[in-house]
Amino acid sequence: MIKAIFFDIDDTLYDSTSLTTMARKNSIRAMIDAGLPATDEEKLFRLLETVIQKSGSNYGRHYDELLKELGVAWNPKIIAAGVVAYEHTKVGYLKPFLRVVPTLLELKKKYKLGIISNGLAVKQWEKLIGLGIHHLFDIVATSEELKYEKPQKEIFEFAVKKLNLKPEECAMVGDKLYSDVLGGNRAGMRTIRILKGKRKNEKPASKEEEPDFEIKDISELFRVLEKMK
Amino acid sequence: MIKAIFFDIDDTLYDSTSLTTMARKNSIRAMIDAGLPATDEEKLFRLLETVIQKSGSNYGRHYDELLKELGVAWNPKIIAAGVVAYEHTKVGYLKPFLRVVPTLLELKKKYKLGIISNGLAVKQWEKLIGLGIHHLFDIVATSEELKYEKPQKEIFEFAVKKLNLKPEECAMVGDKLYSDVLGGNRAGMRTIRILKGKRKNEKPASKEEEPDFEIKDISELFRVLEKMK
Question: Which residues of chain B register pLDDT less than 70?
């Protein structure tokens, strides 16, 4: 019997794909407005994506790197314009997907709820707080704190043990086959893939990446949980 | 004849005192809500002010230090709650003082406009951009870039030279006697003190800190500039 449900954050509880895409596009536009000597927004957006991929999403100086790549001298006005546009856009997009809050509130009556997330602890908590759902979880496990990251099964096992449960009593809900589903399966949990974000059309690369269930909307969890009984 | 007017940013163009006070108070409240084991908001606020004074306002981990001071283990939920509350409050308060924008637009018809500011270049530009006035200035001189800070006269001299002017052709407007007025006087500029923010009741500590004019509102600049002719 399922006693706890764990969730991924990005593209599972909110539209992370739209947030990062729109925030980056708006930052490019603001940097051009602030004097960046380039006009092709689409090309700059692709260059920024490359820079972010190279330096990692938690690196703090993507815009400095972008200027370097363009051969433009360091310019605090342009960098600040990018930062402000990103932050302002973020506030607008950091909202839960439809039905996330009422679904979590309803699930909370019968199940323990948790988060299993790859990333910096403070940054992931900032998302939960910005989403207004930080009070709803019995445990939040982040890779920074645990030194293990999805799909390593240790991060799932830690979360399960913390609630004094067995893996088969837990379900993992996430959009990513290679981390949420693969890791949950390896840890012996039930896995539910949610078809959201940029990875929603990906196919499992192996048997281990196949989820027990697929849903398009978080509210379908009630039906899935019924079936699991 | 005055040809350029330079401005300080904090407590001159916007209400920096209210922003930092309210953002810190809201961050304390959010951290208590997130589980900080303490309830005296006023006492925590004073402790946070001490921490910020000790580590400097540009240090990135004030809330980590606050937890240390309280003997509380590092807690990403509490820290993130403080960060998010601070950032959200900031957006609400980062607005120009009344009449700043129309006054700057009117002045721009006849004068060069500049900023002379102590602080990190990107952070100061973020303020100008957040205030929506970043396109109005012919020069923005920050202490980080110039390695001199107010009241050192070199930062004023740099800004003046950059516009190909002489100091006596320039006026400095700011709220701080010990940096804006003292520095402007030493550089040979005309100085205008604006009575805003937490320092508005301070008295000049020396003859050198006495401004040529005092105004309560930026729109009084028109009258003052007439007198200077």
Answer: none
In sequence order, what are the beta bridge partners of B172?
B6, B191
How far is Cα B62 from Cα A222, in angstroms, rounded to an integer? 43
Helix (H) or strand (E) holding B81: helix B76-93
Query: What sign has the CA pseudo-torsion A118, A122, A123, A125?
Result: positive
Helix (H), strand (E), coil (C) string for B146-191: HCCCCCCHHHHHHHHHHCCCCHHHEEEEECCHHHHHHHHHHCCCEE
Q: Which residues 6+ apart lie within 8 Å of B217 measured at CB?
A: B97, B98, B99, B194
C-alpha B5/C-alpha B225 separation (Å) is 10
**Which among B218, B208, B204 is positioned nearest to B187, based on CA atoms?**
B208
Query: How far apart, in whole angstroms, are the C-alpha atoms of residue A75 and residue A108?
Result: 49
Distance CA B131, CA B172 (A): 20
Query: What phi and psi values does residue A70 have, to the nearest 5 degrees?
Result: -85, -5
Which among A84, A140, A142 has CB closest to B130?
Answer: A84
pLDDT value of residue A223: 97
Q: What is the CA radius of gyration of chain A?
A: 19
Query: What is the side-by-side order of every strand in the sheet holding B112-117?
Result: B139-142, B112-117, B4-7, B170-174, B190-194, B213-215
Region class of A48: left (phi > 0), else alpha (psi between -120 and 50), else beta: alpha
Give A170 to chain B, closest Cα distance, Å.
23
Q: Write out the E strands in chain B.
A: 4-7, 112-117, 139-142, 170-174, 190-194, 213-215
**Closest Cα in chain A, distance from residue B135 (Å):** 8
- At residue B57, the pLDDT reads 86
Question: What stretches in chain A show pLDDT beneath 70?
Answer: none
The residue among A216, A156, A145 whose CA lies nearest residue A182 is A156
d(CA A191, CA A210): 8
| Interface predicted TM-score (ipTM) of this complex, two decimals | 0.88
Q: Looking at residue A229, what is its pLDDT?
A: 84
CB pair distance less than 8 Å for A126 and B88? no
How does the average pLDDT of chain A come out, rounded?
A: 96
